[in-house]
Design goal:
The protein is built from seven helices and nine strands. With 214 residues, the protein is an alpha/beta fold. The strands form two sheets. The chain has a seven-stranded mixed sheet with strand order 5-2-1-6-7-9-8, with helices on both faces. Helix 1 runs antiparallel to helix 3. The longest helix has 13 residues. The chain is globular and about 55 Å long. It starts with 9 loop residues before the first helix and ends with a strand. It binds S-adenosyl-L-homocysteine and magnesium ion. S-adenosyl-L-homocysteine (SAH) binds next to helix 3 and strand 2. Magnesium ion binds next to loops.
Length: 214
């Protein structure tokens, strides 16, 4: 079958659009299409949260006959903590006194019927990167948006991106009035490295293809 005939799993795209989280439908679809067109290998996501973007990537993984690996410590980013803009009190585990998005994530993936294509890892992304060695088809960075952690995600994971693989970065806002600058800064760092060619992005989603080895 020609790759142009492989199509995204529609049921998973619909489930993704209906899931709770932070991924507009047009950006999610662009992410899934980029994953569909990526070279062979697993897809890896940093920042699972409640599984919304994971399902967009799962729609591509299902079509590719592959897997999406998603890593999150499930304790939330800075903006999810009590007193911050995106805090949801319903996500706090009262016994532990901390946010726990893992039960909600599992529910999302199970109800969408995506458990067979999603490999979930509960860990700090940078610690998991040190244990990883398979070249990645697509790396999606959507974890914490402080400068320090965004840079750590870039530095710890991009060495695992395959030649010709796609680096996807979310929440890139060139104008500070539109949002935090950490994702924009790592996007610039990647682009300025000369290792990538920019593909057509969507909204705050940027897509960069690592140069194939010549
Ligand atoms: N992709 C999600 C949104 C991710 S929100 C969606 O589609 O809705 C960012 C997530 O990154 C949070 O769940 C937070 O727990 C996680 N995170 C933040 N820092 C992390 C780190 N160092 N390692 C792993 N996960 C991290
Ligand atoms: Mg995001």
């Amino acid at each position: 079958m020609l790759s142009s005939q492989i199509v995204l799993d529609q049921g998973l795209l619909t489930a993704a659009a209906e899931a709770e989280g932070f991924m507009p439908a047009d950006e999610g679809r662009a992410l899934a299409e980029a994953a569909l067109a990526a070279p062979p290998g697993p897809i890896l996501e940093v920042g699972s949260y409640l599984g919304k973007s994971t399902l967009y990537l799962a729609a591509a993984a299902r079509a590719r006959g592959g897997k999406v690996v998603t890593v999150d410590h499930h304790r939330g980013s800075e903006e999810h903590q009590p007193g911050w803009e995106y805090h949801d009190p319903g996500l706090v585990d009262p016994a532990v006194g901390k946010i726990d998005t893992l039960p909600g994530f599992r529910r999302t993936i199970a109800l969408a019927g995506a458990e067979d294509v999603v490999v979930a890892v509960v860990a700090r992304a940078e610690e998991f990167a040190a244990l990883w060695s398979t070249p990645l088809a697509l790396l999606f960075l959507d974890g914490s948006h402080t400068d320090e952690s965004a840079r750590r995600d870039l530095d710890s994971w991009t060495p695992h991106l395959a030649a010709g693989g796609v680096l996807a970065i979310h929440d890139v806002f060139p104008d500070p009035a539109d949002g935090g600058q950490a994702p924009y800064r790592i996007y610039r760092t990647a682009l300025d490295s000369g290792d990538y060619t920019e593909l057509t992005g969507r909204g705050s989603l940027r897509l960069l293809r690592r140069h194939p080895v010549s």
